[in-house]
Design a protein that fits this description.
It is built from 20 helices and 24 strands. The protein is of the alpha/beta class.
């Protein structure tokens, strides 16, 4: 039952006066710092007259909704009716009426993105951004503008192009880039990061010719004359990347700050991140200054030497709730869009190609057992059905505990028998539903109708009892979780004109669960993160609409009004 704020004026006049004189707070240099005048035992903040989804009941699609909640010292301390919760106020408690004369606001648990690349996203923001280009001509126009603005000889990096969005759907060539790059070496990643286009100057700087020996799992495309086209695939990209001057510390920090701001602005309060060690050191620097407001669990590279991994794990407090290292991330294959995902049978639209596995099974098994015995959680990027099976085979080895919460990242195409193996081995399916919004336009062409039954199969995983964690793969896709929620319940493109395997749709509650509590479980944080009940972290998002009840297309238009982390407001939009 909704209680009008005016009716409480007599009882709470003192605290209301105090609140009226105190503006909404933004994050302070220390997340736990509070005003000294707060009455002992009284909450720091009260939110009332609202629709607050606690997160309870999401998995069963029977969500618990309350009117009010109390926050103190970074934790939720009480939830209930407006009358019950406002009774807890003290003279210095900040009051937040969610039903103002202007608009009604809704609260949901903060989103936990289970798969990001914040460092890469930041550098894309500082370099050539090719996301959304609708044609090769538009791509080249943007590159030409960047070349004109760059110092002489400066490398042009960045990317985000996607040739499957173009009418001609043909990969660019080095000759295309040469027309607009002048004296600048250029190396620009496709949106999935699994292939890139290099111009002639970049290939020359890297020493890449038709005779260059490729690293395992890598390749360069050759034209009809046997010369490199400029397309560099998978691990072969390292040949170019190692000759590109690294960003300065200042450039890296600026990019990381932009990526973190982007996450907070879209209601993401936690990120499980795969960036470089240098980015982790930037996050650490920001935390020491009191300027890190996004919770980050940083992944370490599976392929790194074990002693390096142990040293990096020991570098930072594992119990730090804002920042710590997490699982090891390894790569089994590439992507469907690039035809580099490892498949058991050839691609339906490329009959001679089964993708590019990154390991032999023997080597993979050996490294997995070694790292598991050292106490690491392991997550494998595996998109094709062969790659997924290889990952599960590695997890099935003696010495790899089923309690480790090991993960398969993406799991986009899964062979039917492997769903049960996920369950048996205790493996988490860490997936990004927003990928299907793009891939639905061509996925059937790549894999055919039979394999499509086990593709992007969120519901099939849930029915098999497999833990499901959702993320975005930012910056491969925008970090907004609302695209993922839309896709999880529709399985169509954003226009509703094309769909894939509709039997694998989720309910709204199941999708929200995977984006909050499922992601928390995937990082061993489900006992303090992912819902809004007493004792849990006060990480939540205030939005302009009820994303649980609205039609899916309306969810895409959701606006984040405020984002709170550890009981502190860390983002506020101009439209309140």
């Amino acid at each position: 039952m909704r209680t009008n704020f005016a009716l409480l004026a007599v009882v709470f006049s003192a605290c209301i006066l105090a609140a009226a004189q105190t503006p909404a707070r933004h994050a302070t240099p220390q997340h736990t710092k509070k005003a000294a005048a707060v009455t002992a035992g009284a909450p720091d903040d009260l939110f009332f007259n609202g629709v607050i989804y606690t997160g309870e009941g999401f998995a069963d699609d029977k969500p618990r909704v309350v009117e009010a909640m109390a926050v103190s010292k970074g934790k939720i301390v009480a939830v209930g009716t407006t009358a019950e919760i406002t009774r807890l106020a003290g003279p210095s408690t900040h009051l937040h009426d969610l039903d103002t004369a202007h608009t009604h606001h809704f609260i949901f648990p903060g989103f936990n993105d289970a798969h990001t690349h914040l460092g890469e996203a930041g550098r894309e923001k500082l370099n050539v951004d090719l996301r959304g280009t609708g044609s090769l001509a538009e791509m080249l126009s943007r590159i030409q503008a960047a070349a004109a603005a760059a110092p002489a000889g400066h490398w042009l990096t960045g990317g985000g192009w996607d040739h499957t969005l173009w009418k001609e759907k043909v990969l660019p060539t080095r000759q295309d880039l040469d027309k607009v790059t002048g004296d600048h070496p250029a190396f620009l990643s496709r949106i999935d990061g699994h292939i890139a286009i290099a111009n002639t100057a970049a290939l020359k700087a890297a020493g890449i010719t038709a005779q260059t020996k490729m690293p395992e799992g890598g390749a360069v495309d050759l034209d009809k004359d046997g010369e490199p086209t400029g397309i560099v695939r998978e691990s072969a990209q390292e040949l170019v990347e190692k000759v590109i001057p690294p960003p300065t510390h200042e450039e890296r920090r600026k990019g990381d700050e932009l990526a973190i701001e982007d996450a907070l602005a879209h209601g993401v309060t936690s990120a499980q991140d795969n960036s470089a060690w240098e980015d982790f050191l930037v996050y650490e620097e920001m935390e020491k200054e009191g300027n890190l407001h996004l919770r980050i669990s940083e992944w370490l590279p599976f392929a790194a030497p074990l002693e390096v991994l142990k040293a990096h794990r020991a570098h930072h407090d594992a119990n730090d709730a804002m920042l710590h290292t997490g699982m090891l991330k390894g790569f089994m294959d590439g992507s469907l869009g690039s035809h580099t995902a490892a498949m058991k049978a050839p691609y339906s639209d490329d009959p001679k190609n089964t993708g590019l596995p990154q390991y032999t099974q023997e080597r993979l098994n050996q490294m997995t057992v070694e790292r598991a015995k050292a106490g690491f959680q392991i997550g494998f990027h595996a998109i094709g059905d062969k790659a997924v099976s290889m990952a599960l085979d590695a997890f099935a080895q003696s010495g790899v505990p089923e309690t480790a919460r090991n993960r398969v990242e993406h799991a986009q195409v899964v062979d039917a028998p492997d769903f049960a193996r996920f369950k048996k081995l205790g493996v988490i399916a860490s997936m990004q539903p927003n990928h299907l919004m793009t891939d639905v336009n061509w996925a059937m062409d790549r894999i055919g109708p039979e394999r499509a039954k086990g593709a992007y199969a969120w519901k099939r995983f849930v029915d098999a009892g497999v833990p499901l964690a959702f993320g975005t793969d930012y910056p491969v896709e925008p970090i907004t979780p609302f695209r993922g929620l839309f896709e999880a319940v529709t399985r169509t493109n954003e226009y509703g004109t094309k769909s894939l395997s509709l039997e694998n749709k989720l309910t709204r509650g199941q999708a929200l669960y995977a984006y909050t509590q499922g992601s928390a479980y995937a990082e061993f944080a489900e006992k303090h993160k992912g819902n809004l009940t007493p004792g849990f972290d006060a990480d939540f998002v205030i939005v302009d609409r009820d994303i649980y009840k609205l039609r899916p297309s309306a969810v895409l238009e959701t606006q984040v009004r405020q984002t709170w982390v550890a009981g502190q407001q860390v983002h506020s939009s101009s439209a309140q």
